[in-house]
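Can't paste images in this forum, so I'm doing it all in text. The chain is below; anyone willing to post the predicted structure tokens underneath?
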Amino acid sequence: MFKRSKKTPGLDGPLSTESLRAWLIEHLAARVGAAPADIDTGKSFEAYGLDSRVAVQVSGALEKVVERRLSPGLLYEHQTIDDLSAHLARELHLAERA
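Text version of the structure:
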């Protein structure tokens, strides 16, 4: 399980699969001007209009959340919130709930 001494920036509580997924939903919603409830986590980032520049910016913001260097192409390698959060949960050995 991923542990840290402080609260993760931009997250409510410690980093977990669910908190990471919630961060991705909130961040994407803010980027596209939608309500978080309107974000379909199975819909591709491209379908939300994210271009390569924005995808790299999101990846950079996500690096700060997980405190780890990430591929700038991460959102193209894992094209949905569901896929990306599952991938990062495996990579970071996150618990389902913290």
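The helical segments are 17-32, 52-66, 74-77, 81-92. Residues 1-9 have pLDDT under 50 and may be disordered.
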